[in-house]
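From: lab user (bench 3)
To: helpdesk
Subject: output format question, protein + cytidine-5'-monophosphate

Hello, I'm new to running complex predictions and I'm not sure whether the block I got back is the full result or only part of it. Here's what I submitted:
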Amino acid sequence: MNKDVIIACDFASAEATYAFLDKFTDVKPFVKIGMELFYAEGPEIVKSLKQRGHKVFLDLKLHDIPNTVKKAMAVLSSLDADIVNCHAAGSSAMMKAALEGLTRPDGSRPLLIAVTQLTSTDQETMTNELLIDEPINEVVMKYAENAAKSGLDGVVCSPREAAEVHSVCGDSFLTVTPGIRFADSEVGDQKRVMTPADAAKVGSDYIVVGRPITAAADPVAAYKRCVKEFMGVEL
Ligand code: C5P
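Helpdesk reply: Thanks, we reran it on our side. This is the complete output you should expect:
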């Protein structure tokens, strides 16, 4: 089972991203590229980070009709990202189409994970705006199950949901968990956080860490601390 620390590179430009990553001289961290950086810099940013030796989680959260998602995923697959994602809310048909689009002629493909419910959506919004009456935790587990049955590799979820996702979808189904903070760091706008060590205990497969590393006085030391706490590995 692969476990890793993924740094959320929430920067506005390639220049800012390279300036940050150039601090890492002896390690090549797994990085997450989100919509802001991708829309600013285009597909080149993925290719260039891969060429620099980084693994890339391309966090674009696709959600459209199955045929459109299938074709878009085929394009993303050619960029050689390691992990890509889509919204489970797009339906099982859309997730299966996404997998088809991602799969290259030789059968290889990036890992595909699903977003269940965004952490910015709470029970009140779900009930009153989306007209989903079920408890949010059950919705998250049902969407995770739909993703697993559609052949996806895992979900993005809170570390607090990781153990239950594994019990519903199996231990090999990946849980990729943001909302990570060191015991002594700023929480910021994240509401329900967990330390890297606790995320390891509840079975998170990958932790996604942004500001505790990107805003640290010494980002390389903060990254190494994360790896030590989460994976027990001294870099
Ligand atoms: O800086 P911080 O560690 O809070 O960054 C977390 C990263 O994970 C950000 O890129 C954020 O957009 C992303 N994310 C999240 N919660 C989710 C899904 C993604 O915080 N449910």
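A quick orientation on your result: The CA atoms of residues 10 and 196 lie 19 Å apart. Let us know if anything else is unclear.
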